[in-house]
Amino acid sequence: MKLGLRASPTEITFTILDGEKNSIVAIDEIKVPKALSTPEILKYVRFNILDVIREYSITKAGIRVTESNSQTLSIERIQIEGVIQEAFASSLLESYYVGQISSISKRLGIARATFKPFIDGTTDFDQVEGWDELTKVQRESVFCAIGA
After folding, report:
1. Which contacts (CB < 8 Å, 24+ apart) does range 22-27 have?
2. Closest CA to 133 of 143, 145, 124, 146
């Protein structure tokens, strides 16, 4: 099983992909509780990611991280992405990657210029049934899972 993640300050969207059947098993979110302090949020995220990895017997994973040239950096998102990477490193995953648009595109074998139209939904990604029904962040998490 493969795991693809896309974090935001308020939730982590993840896709579970059956690599052998090349089919989506689940797309879900981990909501970040607003009432917790930053260290407690990071602990909560770490435990939940490790639970997902164990529950679905994930062997490979990928996370879409903030672009280095982003005009609007979110410290909260970057902290969550860092904790997810640490959870990957602490788990029994066979392999994982940390990707920005260019590296995810390369893993998928698509041109970087076509990444955004796929994510925006202006171009249909035929390999995934119901692509047009997914949100942008769900599409990014699907691409991360496929890339894993």
Report:
1. 22/127, 24/128, 24/142, 24/145, 25/1, 25/56, 26/56, 27/134, 27/138, 27/141, 27/142
2. 124
Per residue of the chain (148 residues), give pLDDT as tens: 999 999 999 999 999 999 888 899 999 999 999 999 999 999 999 999 999 999 999 999 999 998 887 778 889 999 999 999 999 999 999 999 999 999 999 999 999 999 999 999 888 888 888 898 999 999 999 999 999 9
Question: In Å, what is the CA distance from 7 to each residue of 20, 22, 86, 110, 143?
Answer: 26, 23, 14, 22, 14
> Three-class SS of residue 64?
strand
CATH number of 2-147: 3.30.420.10
The residues facing 98 across adjacent strands are: 63
Domains of the chain: which residue ranges? 2-147
Residue 84, both tokens? 């997810």
Whole-prediction pTM: 0.92
